[in-house]
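Running low. Got one?
___
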Amino acid sequence: MLKRSHMCGSLRANLVGQTITVCGWINTYRDQGKGLIFADVRDREGLCQVVFDLEQSPADLVGLAKTLRREFVIAVTGKVRIRAGAANPKLATGEIEIVAEKLELLNAAEPPPILPDDHDAEKIGEEIRLKYRYIDLRRPRMQSILRTRSRVTKFARDYFGSNGFLEIETPLLIKTTPEGARDFIVPARLHPGKWYALPQSPQLFKQILMVAGCDRYLQICKCMRDEDPRADRQAEFTQIDLEMSFVEREDVMEMMTGFVRGLWTELFSYDIGTVERITYWDAMERYGIDRPDNRYGLELHDISAIAAKTDFVVFKEALEKSRMGRGGVVKAIRVPTPNEKITRKLLDGYSDFAKIFKAGGIPYTKLGANGFETGIAKFCEPIKAELIEKLGLKQGDIVVFAADHYDIATKTLGELRQKIARDLDIIPQGKWNFLWVIDFPMFEWDDDGKRWVALHHPFTSPNPDQFGILDKNPGACLSAGYDLVLNGSEIAGGSIRIHNTKVQEAVFGLIGLTEADAKMKFGFLLDALKHGAPPHGGIAFGLDRLIMHIVGTDNIRDVIAFPKTQSGMDLMSDAPGPVDPEQLVETHVRSTAPEQPAKV
């Protein structure tokens, strides 16, 4: 076989006159009919043009060149020359071409069901692309994403390695601890009736590594969660997982800020500047969401005291509501104008959007030259002066309202804020806003289960000044958790962990675990904490979501080499699939699902 000397996309004019060898796939093939055949040869680095001069070449090369077709795999040796008067400025290699002297067909290819072309990909359904993923991944866009992903993981290993982190693998077959999402379970053949689970995260094992004295841990790991279908989730995903001993919250946040600062410098030569901080409750009050996008305004304002002065029944009924000791609220967003995209139809549609979040609707009005116009104008006139002052209204501005229980009104306007920003196209492009969210509640109340649940996870420590209220007022207790948000998307989440057995047992009790339940599910952790656990904390970056931001896609399947569909199918390998009945017998498992007809 001809041995490659250069990658196709690396060729430049400095190689003119040299004889080189490239290998790759035929991207395009053009028989000019004048004794010349042109072929663009593609590898992961790009394209280069190869010229077959049929009149000057030996007969065996000519015969082979005439058989070439798209996606054939070849090796070709030839001399590099300048494209005289025919340079292609759209290609990095567009100044030069290779005049073929030797050609080797490494493999023929059937006519491809799809072409590895970025433009054609937009016209092809995603299911077809996933079925023929080995061809779809040949596209320059997909190759670029995979290369970027590799750069990010290499940078992570280099950065954390230089800061004393050890890369340590944790088990993939573990004990099921069904406290979060649903586990994927695996029958244990050697232990009939018992099961392993695939890890939703390495959380407990990385904490135990800190007890074991490993001090700083890194793992780029697969995690699996058997969740219901969602467009932005995958059943298996990748984390950059980290843990540190003898640290407080500030130490972890400083280390991780350094990581993203260095990464953005490496990838974009971009200075992310100072990473601001916001408390959970401040984020909820101002943005209605705990992962705020602060690249634009549209902040929420609580106007409950002002709204109480109107006769609008929607406001009055909302303010009379009460839940968990908290009264109802009326909140508002000022939408600045002029903006030609604001229409009555758009505003009316927001009420349907609000119903997704259990809100009754979205009243609105507009401030005109002579007072409020449209919508609920007549109810707003008596409080006009106060609304103008509170919201900073100017003539032409729209005001949208949400009135309900605190959580419903806040969440509704928080989600609507993002939708309005998208609808009106006011989100700045090319801007990266990192934000730390801190001081989360330790717990939230589960109405269905009538119990407290951990907002992060039950291994998160209270803030140092909050231990005194952990038992007395768990709903008011703040945690030592922290999330890193980028442009409104959580890219990392972590916390300082509980390293005291008594505190850990108390938290288990608050979330409804009996002593027996806690021992059965987490006994090995409780035992470890009794044997000299250091203060420790950590974080996990969602690698897939991080790459989505970096490459500029909103489709998680673009950044994973072999993703599942939204329903959890691998269309290329046809997984999940049936198993041999003998395997079920060996693992002592019996299926209760209706038998499916065999595929023809």
